[in-house]
Task: structure prediction
Amino acid sequence: MLGRLNHVAIAVPDLEAGCQVYSAMLGATVSEPQIEADHGVTVVFVELPNTKIELLEPLGDNSPIQAFLDKNPSGGIHHVCYEVEDIIAARDHLKAEGARVLGDGEPKTGAHGKPVLFLHPKDFCGTLVELEQA
Ligand code: CO
Result:
């Protein structure tokens, strides 16, 4: 069912400082910041040969990553995103297996304009998992 690793998302308290780490220190190509008001984050994409890293900074008062940063003040890995061919079939399979899909269970449009779903970390080895229809 799982395809490529689409991205690893890292929550950061300071996006500019995070960009510096990946561009100046690690020598990676880093995009301009992109505001994702619907998702309560500002995101920067770090392009790697085989996948992407997304640096997420909270945006607004109700950012879904603020609680994570409260617990991890210097930042940390927030979620991993795997590609699937058919997100509805994947969701139905996982629900039938007893996994919890977050929110109302309906795919939302993600940062790349494609349908995404999030899965409960307790059902996936303690890791928040995003599925994206490739
Ligand atoms: Co993501």
Remarks:
- Strands lie at 5-11, 29-30, 34-36, 41-47, 52-58, 76-84, 108-109, 115-119, 129-133.
- The chain has a mean pLDDT of 96.
- The longest helix spans residues 15-25.
- The chain has one domain: 2-133.
